[in-house]
Amino acid sequence: MYLLIDVSVFVETVGFLSVFIEALLGAPQLIKNHKNKSTAGMSKLMVFLWTFGDVFKTTYFLIRRAPIQFWICGLLQVSIDLFIFVFVETVGFLSVFIEALLGAPQLIKNHKNKSTAGMSKLMVFLWTFGDVFKTTYFLVRRAPIQFWICGLLQVSIDLFIFGQILFYRKPYKKVSKAYIH
User: Fold this and answer.
1) What one-character-per-residue DSSP string does 110-172 give?
2) Tens digit of pLDDT for each residue in 121-142?
3) Does domain 101-167 correspond to CATH entry 1.20.1280.290?
4) Disulfide: which of 7, 61, 122, 159 matches 66 by Cβ 3.0-4.6 Å?
5) Are 7-90 and 101-167 in the same CATH fold?
6) What is the pLDDT of residue 151?
């Protein structure tokens, strides 16, 4: 019987496509996580096991000297798995960390000016209590540790600003040299 294509080329092509398609399985999730800027709804254990399995599979391909397409696709798969986890977790941490530092420029400005003139005390009060409640929610709901750390940092900055309001409420008066003996 006459075949239009070489069987070995066909088998290699099918093998490559099967591994390549499997390697790209994580891409739709990566895109969704990037659009949502969140890994909400994803099991971290599933991502860990998936990555762990891909690492072992790629190692197996390398040790067994499997055709190059297998270990290239395996490396691609591991890279996508790690990128999904590391990138999204990094973006998530940076977003809560930057939010935690929102009060820092005001804290520094107040310190340099030795004044909180112009700041709404009610705003700082509500800001502080909002951050306390948010951080309490993170702790009670057992949110990931980056939320705890950033929440506590944010509350600390809020409390320092609140302390500045109390500390700087009376303007400084220069001490006359006549009083210094």
Assistant:
1) HHHHT--TT--HHHHHHHHHHHHHHHHHHHHTT--HHHHHHHHHHHHHHHHHHHHHHHTSS--
2) 888 888 888 888 888 888 887 8
3) yes
4) 61
5) yes
6) 86
Q: How far apart are CA 141 and CA 30, in angstroms?
A: 26
Q: What's at 68, amino acid-wise?
A: I
- Is pLDDT larger for residue 43 or for residue 175? 43
The secondary structure of residue 176, as a DSSP letter, is P
- Residues shown for the chain: 181
**Segments making up each domain of the chain, as ranges:** 7-90, 101-167
Provide the whole-model pTM: 0.50
Q: What is the pLDDT of residue 172?
A: 55
Angle, in degrees to the nearest 10, between helices 68-100 and 27-36: 10
Q: Is 138 in contact with 151 (CB distance < 8 Å)?
A: yes
Fold type of domain 7-90: Monooxygenase (1.20.1280)
